[in-house]
């Protein structure tokens, strides 16, 4: 299953959420927008930004 071009993450995430794997798949599926909603959204957005930069550099 591929992700759509726009993805919304509703917090809190499940305990087994793997953001690195999510970002890798989102990049592979050419996701253009990842929106985060809920308590702690700012921290999750920062973590997603860091992962995207790390994966783009590798």
Descriptive labels:
58 residues; alpha+beta; two-stranded parallel sheet; 2 helices; 2 strands; globular
In terms of topology, how is this protein built?
Elements: E1 6-10, H1 19-28, E2 33-37, H2 41-57
Parallel strand pairs: 1-2
Helix pairs in contact: 1-2
Explain what you see:
It is a single chain. The chain is α+β, with helices and mostly antiparallel strands and 58 residues long. The chain has one domain. It has two helices and two strands, in the order E-H-E-H. It has helices at residues 19-28, 41-57; strands at 6-10, 33-37. Helix 1 packs across helix 2 (41-57). It starts with 5 loop residues before the first strand and ends with a helix.
